[in-house]
Amino acid sequence: MVSIPNEPVTEPDVVRRLAGTARLTPVWRNGLGGVTFRTDDGRYLKYGPRNDETSMDAEAARLSWAAPHTRVPRLIEVGGDGTHEWLVTAAIDAESAVAPRWIADPATAVRAVGEGLRALHEALPVDGCPFDWSVPTRLANAQARGLQISEPLREPPPVERLVVCHGDACCPNTLLDDGGSWVAHVDLGALGVADRWADIAVASMSTEWNYGPGWEDALIAAYGVVPDRGRLAYYRDLWNAT
Fold this sequence. Notes:
This protein is α+β, with helices and mostly antiparallel strands. It contains 8 helices and 10 strands.
């Protein structure tokens, strides 16, 4: 389950050490058992178990690569031990698109997420991007983790437009300013070159998880394209399967 914690969260020793004298507030829990903490001195500390899908080293590399082209958190430190890993970044003066104020105003949040995703795709250069998020790469990663891939997923639709995808374009990973405009993106551990519909499909699908039904096409309209139902269906199935 991915959520904003509403119960007390144990502060791991490593996180407490990284925080120093700063006070910690848990702000996000992911489905792998990881927790992100905010400090009162302007940092975010992400801590979680190692997993085979991605890594915080991978996210650190992608943050460093993307930073000259679009706004992402500034990397401070990345590290790990035999079982867990951590990432420390500088805070950005903005809120997640699923903060309570934006859950209560889905029209503003959904528009910002769609516009922000289009801006990200336009800003990041495909030429020279060292990271790949193509269907073959994703299927190979899933198979290496022991997942069974259905035959229809082995036949993706032709690429409509290659971009550098976010890789986890769910609504929580867009940050909004006080006026409801997008300002930055976070959680870039899977960033890489792929068909833009791989991101659009997941971003629009996630609107129902966060704001309720009826917002998928509004996000796609804010992105600036007409819904491609075939590609949307394929990339949503791929996301759910991998």
